[in-house]
Amino acid sequence: QVQLVESGGGLVQPGGSLRLSCAASGLAWDIYVLGWFRQAPGKEREGVSCITSTSDVRYYADSAKGRFTISRDNAKKMLYLQMDNLRPEDTAVYYCAANLWCSATSTTYWASTKWGQGTQITVSS
């Protein structure tokens, strides 16, 4: 059974940093395209960043460029999102996802995409 578990969310002040982690079990981690999505109250789920299996392609939403960094460790079956200079508009539930479309300019999910349970990030003073 596939399981993705996020950690690292919480409350942070504007300008602060957080590092999200996603641990996987039950799937061949190293062949999957992985990513992070987020969903704020009343809004649709949006792609924040994605990374291909060999880390040769990474995508960042315009809102994340220059502030967020995605990385993966296939040996440890881990996915990370380093988030710096956080803003109040980054407040959302963040989801780890496996099995996505990922290019340098976009990311999207499918019906077969695997999801974590989500972790809340609140950016507020």
What secondary-structure arrangement, pairings included, does this model have?
Layout: E1 3-7, E2 10-12, E3 18-25, E4 34-39, E5 46-51, E6 58-60, E7 68-73, E8 78-83, E9 92-102, E10 107-115, E11 119-123
Parallel strand pairs: 2-11
Antiparallel strand pairs: 1-3, 3-8, 4-5, 4-9, 5-6, 7-8, 9-10, 9-11
Could you walk me through the main structural features you see in this protein, from its secondary elements to its overall organization?
The chain has strands spanning 3-7, 10-12, 18-25, 34-39, 46-51, 58-60, 68-73, 78-83, 92-102, 107-115, 119-123. It has 125 residues and is mostly beta strands. Strands 2, 4, 5, 6, 9, 10 and 11 form a seven-stranded mixed sheet that branches. Strands 1-3-8-7 form a four-stranded antiparallel sheet, with no helix packed on it. The protein starts with a strand and ends with a strand.
